[in-house]
Amino acid sequence: MDKTFKKLLEEAKRIAIKRRLSEYATCGHVGCALITKGSNIYSGISSDTNCALGNCAEFSAISEMLKNGESEIVKLVSYSSKGQIYSPCGRCRELIRMVDNNNVNTKVLINETTVMTIKELLPEMYITKVVESKWK
Description:
This protein is an alpha+beta fold. The chain has five helices and eight strands.
C-alpha cells in the first residue's frame, strides 16, 4: 500500500464511527476518502434509516467532490467501523464511472494488499451497454 492509500485509509478510519442519530437513523458505519486529479482529498460517511433511506459513504464523498467542481477520482478507500476495508457497492461503482469517463482508471483499495480499478470491478458497465446499443 502506497503512502497516498495510507493517508486515505487513515482519513476513512477517522470518520468511520457509527452514531445513532435517533430511533430511526444512524450514520458513520462506513467512511470513505478519495483523492482527485487535482490532489484534493474529499471524504464522506454513510447514513442509514429504518425505511431504506440513506446513502453510502462513497456517494457522500463524491457529492462533496462534485460540490467543489471536481469529478476525476485517482484513488478511493472505504472503511467500516467494524474494522475492515470495504469495496464500493455496485451503485457506487456505477456512480464513480458515470461522473467522469476517466474514472474507469480510479484505483480502489480492496484490502490491505489488493488494488483494483473501477474497470476491473465493473466489467459490464451500464454506460458501455447503452453506448454500444446505439451503434449496432
